[in-house]
Amino acid sequence: MKKLLIVCGLLFSIITIAQAQSTGQKKMATPEEKAKMSAERLAKKLDLNPDQKKKIEDIYLEESMAMATADKEGTGDKEAKKAEKMRIHNEADTKIAAELTEPQKQKYEAWKMENKKHMKMKKGMKEKRPVTPPPVTTPPVM
């Protein structure tokens, strides 16, 4: 009877540990899913028409595919990989801006700035405030 309880306890422990490890992993979205989600988010933010939405989804898909390729084929140099990803992102950003009307471009720029600020705060990088030196006091003359 003791052996049966020990075996059941071990099996229960192993199953619990295995499930805890598998639920912590996120399923990576495919480039198509990433492009569709990004285009949807931007369409809601900027009130895009269906034609603009399709073109922007294509731009995001191209960007996502290029990023995946950069990850796979990238060298071991982190800085070079980061620079390549920034170049890809900036190209996509330029293409997106070309598809927008002037009011949409203004909203898009504001949205990018808001995201940039949010990401800085999320990473714990507080905006630097100018440092003011303490007031200089002269000792009293005796």
**Total number of β-strand segments?**
0
Order of helices and strands: HHHHH
What is the CA-atom radius of gyration, in angstroms?
A: 26 Å
Strand content is under 5%
Overall shape: flat
Helix content: over 70%
Keywords: Signal
Protein name: DUF4890 domain-containing protein
Signal peptide: 1-20
Biased composition (Pro residues): 131-142
Chain-wise SSE layout:
Layout: H1 2-23, H2 31-46, H3 50-73, H4 78-99, H5 102-122
Helix pairs in contact: 2-3, 3-4
Structure description:
The chain has about 140 residues and is an all-alpha fold. It has a domain at about 30-120. The chain is built from five helices and no strands. It has helices at about 1-25, 30-45, 50-75, 80-100, 100-120. Helix 2 packs antiparallel against helix 3 and helix 3 (about 50-75) packs antiparallel against helix 4 (about 80-100).
Task: Write a brief structural summary.
Residues 1-20 form the signal peptide. Residues 117-126 have a biased composition (Basic residues). By secondary structure, this protein is mainly alpha-helical.
Offer a few descriptive terms.
142 residues; mainly alpha; 5 helices; single chain
